[in-house]
Design goal:
The protein is mostly beta strands. It is about 0% helix and about 45% strand. It contains no helices and 10 strands. The chain has a 6-stranded mixed beta sheet with strand order 2-10-9-4-5-6, with no helix packed on it. The protein has a 4-stranded antiparallel beta sheet with strand order 1-3-8-7, with no helix packed on it. The protein is globular, with a radius of gyration of 14 Å. The model has no long low-confidence stretch (mean pLDDT about 95).
Length: about 130
């Protein structure tokens, strides 16, 4: 059973930085792409960034490119999201999830996995004030 524990959120002013962490358990962490998702109040949950099992390929949605960096530590089953130059529109609850479509590389439709995944963690809240 997949278990995910996110942490590292907080309240910052625009332009600030935060580093999120996600500890994953209950599946073979090194077999799958894993991603960060976020959900703002009144909006659907959306993909933010994904990383392949080895950490060599990273994918970002346009709104965070150049500001966010996704990384993973396979020895610790831990996923990270370094968020710099934060904007008020980044305010959301952030979640991680393994993309269990397939083993290996991230599928081109990794962000769409949000519709299928069910074992979400509690998330971590990020609030950015202007």
């Amino acid at each position: 059973q997949v278990q995910l524990v996110e942490s590292g959120g907080g309240s910052v002013q625009a332009g600030g930085s935060l580093r999120l962490s996600c500890v994953a358990d209950g599946y073979t962490y090194t077999d799958y792409c894993i991603a960060w998702f976020r959900q703002a109040p009144g909006k659907e949950r959306e993909g933010v960034a994904a990383i392949n099992p080895g950490g060599s390929s990273r994918y970002y949605v346009d709104s965070v490119k150049g500001r966010f960096t996704i990384s993973r530590d396979n020895a610790k089953n831990t996923l990270y999201l370094q968020m710099n130059s934060l904007k008020p529109e980044d305010t959301a609850m952030y979640y991680c999830a393994p993309v269990l479509f397939q083993k290996g590389e991230c599928a081109s439709g990794w962000a769409g996995y949000v519709k299928f995944f069910r074992a979400w963690g509690q998330g971590t809240q990020v609030t950015v004030s202007s």
